[in-house]
Amino acid sequence: MTGPNEFIEKQYWENYWKASDTWAKEVTRTTRGLSINSILDIFDKYLPVNENFHVLEIGGAPGQYLIYMARNFKYHLHSLDYSKIGNEKTLQNLRLANIDVKVYERDLFSENFNKDLPHFDIVYSLGFIEHFENLTEVVKKHLDLLKPDGILLLGVPNLGGIYRLFLQRTAPQHLAIHNLNSMKIRNWDKFEIDLNLAAIFKGYVSGFEPLVMYKLEKHDRMAHSLNFIVRNLARIFSYRLNSLRKFNSRYWSGYLIGIYKRR
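Structure (tokenized):
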């Protein structure tokens, strides 16, 4: 989405989706991590099953979380993304899964972006708002599409704390396209107050997640050594120390998530 103070350009996503594969696979619990299990646990705990609900994912390509929503909560699916290629991937993915979805190719920050769009029972984004500087503004765009009594769900990866120390050395460009301030839970207080939101749940989840750091842009000896450490930490935490994921902190947890209703 081309918004003010955006950390990333549209062409980045077009190239990203052009290079990616499409597969008919919903997100499922896994031993490999990447915070997926914790995100799905939050879904299962706080989202109602309701076959009349319509859910919208903002930045929805390629639709794997939407598949989970359809199978587990019986929702009608909608996806909004400004990437033409990303939207094509979503349609392919859901078609292969034999699930209906309505896709909107819209820029969230364009004029009259919500013209002719319905309001939804649930609006969510995962890994989206951290690409913008003004959190209040981007969250308000979510609310513009939400029914008055609807549920808002926001999630961002946590690249701060220990992860920042690694990524500064191995993948500084990846780090640069993210607003690290959006990953500090105290900074969410402002948009909650500004937009009159009440938190149903807000917190860091997934515990220490080494795979957050598994990104290599530099190719010097130090970067490769750190990446080797990350690979081995991921194996250890996946198979031997998985129980430690229940301990959470802004310094080491892999994900930050919040669920809201309007006051």
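The chain has one domain: 10-262. The mean pLDDT is 88.
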